[in-house]
Amino acid sequence: MSRSAPRATPPTEPAEAPAQQGDPVSYEAARDELADVVGRLEAGGLSLEESLTLWERGEHLAAVCTRLLAGARSRVEDVLARAEAADED
User: Where is region (Disordered) located (predicted)?
Assistant: First the structure.
């Protein structure tokens, strides 16, 4: 009997990224660090442990970017809603 590896299913919602010491303070800084992580992983030549550590950091940075973008989206929606309400008055 042949065993197949279980398939990982992607989460439907991105995991909330709790702030960690040393986290980038801006979306741009998180995005740039994430791009660096991806570049280092794509370049190869790393040990398995180094690759896993970078992968975990990349996942965290992606979640940080998602959180920061969600906050920005919420701010834009709030401003648009206030402007729309003002136009109706």
Answer: 1-27
